[in-house]
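Work Package 3 (structural annotation) set out to generate three-dimensional models for the target panel prioritized at the project kickoff. During this period the team completed the workflow that converts sequence records into C-alpha cells, so that structures can be stored uniformly alongside our sequence database. As a representative example, we reproduce one entry of 393 residues exactly as it appears in the project archive.
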Amino acid sequence: MKLAIDGGKPLLKPFNFTVKPGKEEIQSVLKTLKAGHLTSFEGKNTVQEFEQKFAEYHSCKHAVACNTGTSSIHSAIASMNAKENSEVLVPTYTFITGVTPLLIENLQPVFVDIDIKTLGMDAKLAKNAVTENTAGIIPTHLYGFPCAIEELKKLAGRNSAFLIEDCCQSHGAKVGKKVTGTFGDAGCFSFYLYKNITTGEGGMTTTNREDVCQNLKTMRQCGKSKPDSKEYDRLGFNYRMTDFTAAIGIPQLKKLDINNKKRTENAKVYDKRLKKLGFQTIPAKENTTPVYFKFPALLPEEIAAKKELFDKALKAENVNLPLYNTIPLPKVKFLQELAKKRNFSQKFYEQEFPVTEEVNRRLIAFYTHSLMPKQRIEEICDAIEKVVNYGNW
C-alpha cells in the first residue's frame, strides 16, 4: 500500500475538528447579557458564581478566576511572597509559562528531570535538587496524568517550601479520591480552547489559604487589595475574567466528568491499538485517575529516528495532530542567556536531562477531545497502522 506522502490515496477523509459552544453555554451567556453583566473590577456576578462552583467541585475553600492559565500561575507565584533570587524547582518538560512568571518575580528556576512513567517531575531527583535557597516547587500534571504529587507535597513540607500545582492540563484528574489542584498551597488551571474545560481563554486558581486568596485577588486587581481603595498595595496586573467567560465556564464545569469519561474511552482505543504497533504508552499510575488532555505515546526507536517524517506521513493521511508546543525548557535559548546574565545557581544549559531528552525524541500526542467520535479515533489508529507498516523505517 502506497502512503499518501509518497503519492498514494489518503486513507482518511479530512475531519474538521472544531470546538464550538453548545446550547447550554450560549444560553448561559445570554442570561448574563440580559442581566447586564459584562465584567467588574471586584469579580462579582457570574464570575463569583463560577468561582464558587469551581471551589465546590474541588472541595476547597477558595477559587479565584483570572483571564488565562498563565496569569493564574503568575498570580500564584507572586502570592507566595518568596524572597528574591530564591530557587523554585520546576520540571524540564512543561509549557514555558510554568517558568516565565518566576523570572518576572526575580526567582530562579531549578530544572528537575521527569519520570518517564508519569511525564511529571521525578520526586527522587527533586529531593536531590533542594538547597537552603529553595523556596518552592511547581510540578505539572502533564497531559492530564497526575505526577508524584503526594511525594512532592511531603518534600515541600519538610523544607518549608511552597507547592503550586500546574493543573492546566489536568482538570478533574485524581489521586485517590482527591482532585489535582488541592494538594498544594495553590492549584492553577487554564481554560484554553482544547482543555478539558474551555472558555476560549481563562484561568482559575484554587487554594485553602486565606492569605493566598487575598493576594490572588490583589494581583488581578492591578495591585489593589481593596477595589474601592485609592491606594495600590503591590505590583499587580489586570488579570480579571469577564462575566462572558465565566458564563461559558459554569456549564462547562457541569460537563467535566462526562467529557473526561469520553476522553478516557478515546484514550483506551489509542492504548490498545498503539501497543500492538510497538508504541510505549503511559499507564495510569496506581491510585490515580488521569483525564487525557491528549494521548501521549513514545514512538518505537526505528520510527523515532525519523519522527518528523512520521508526522508528515500521518498528516498526509489526514490525521489531525496537535501542535507541539513543548520542548525541553533547558534548551530554550533565551532562558539560557538569562541564566548566564543573572548568574543562576543552576547552570542547566551545561546539564543533561536524559529522560527528558528521550521523551522529546520519541513523544507524539493525539487528540482525545470529547467532541471526537470514537469511530474517528479508530480511523486515526488505522492510519497510524498504515504509516507504520508501509513507511520506510
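The first helix runs from residue 23 to 34.
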